[in-house]
């Protein structure tokens, strides 16, 4: 995990506006949320063995995530990589299969983030800042 400095850290806005601004860029609201916090993710690649994300955490400061239109405060964005072991067979499905990777735990949850993804993540984050910071 690599934390990125950003002008959006501590920014407060409602969930609807956050999604309205970032979904067109390719961000998705992560299924990994609770009533008081969550993440919005940009998947930078899907090689079948590794997945790189720009992740923006948020926490509810008024209302609850998943209910209505809560006001959220953004946390510090970070880059994250999950790497899957290649070539292992699991019930006849190799690790090269996206189906297998989708349902298996990563070999490395906090894998090395290549310089290319750091550069790409910083550029994507600049676009996010341009949309959210007026």
Structure commentary:
With 134 residues, the chain is α+β, with helices and mostly antiparallel strands. The protein has a single domain, classed as TATA-Binding Protein (2-Layer Sandwich), CATH 3.30.310. 24% of the residues lie in helices and 37% in strands. The chain contains 3 helices and 9 strands; from the N terminus they run E-E-H-E-E-E-E-E-E-E-H-H. Strands 1, 2, 3, 4, 5, 6 and 7 form a 7-stranded antiparallel sheet that branches. The protein is globular and about 40 Å long. InterPro entries: Uncharacterised_YugN-like, YugN-like_sf. This is YugN-like family protein.
| Total DSSP helices | 3
**Could you name the CATH topology?**
TATA-Binding Protein
* Contiguous uncertain segments of 5+ residues: 88-104
Strand content: 35-45%
Question: Mean pLDDT score, rounded?
Answer: 83
- What separation lies between the terminal Cα atoms? 28 Å
Number of strands: 9
> What global shape is seen?
globular
The second-level CATH architecture is 2-Layer Sandwich
Return the structural class.
alpha+beta
Q: What series of H and E elements makes up the topology?
A: EEHEEEEEEEHH
Q: TL;DR of this structure?
A:
With 134 residues, this protein is of the alpha+beta class.
Quickly list its features.
seven-stranded antiparallel sheet; alpha+beta; 134 residues; TATA-Binding Protein; 9 strands
């Amino acid at each position: 995990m690599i934390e990125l400095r950003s002008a959006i850290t501590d920014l407060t806005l409602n969930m609807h506006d956050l999604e309205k601004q970032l979904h067109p860029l390719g961000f998705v609201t992560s299924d990994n949320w609770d009533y008081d916090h969550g993440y919005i993710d940009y998947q930078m690649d899907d090689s079948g063995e590794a997945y790189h994300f720009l992740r923006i955490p948020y926490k509810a400061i008024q209302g609850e995530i998943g209910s209505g239109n809560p006001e959220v405060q953004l946390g510090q964005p970070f880059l994250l990589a999950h790497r899957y072991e290649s070539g292992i067979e699991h019930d006849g499905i190799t690790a090269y299969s996206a189906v297998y990777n989708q349902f298996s735990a990563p070999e490395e949850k906090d894998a090395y983030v290549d310089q290319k993804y750091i550069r790409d993540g910083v550029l994507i984050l600049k676009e996010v800042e341009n949309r959210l910071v007026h």
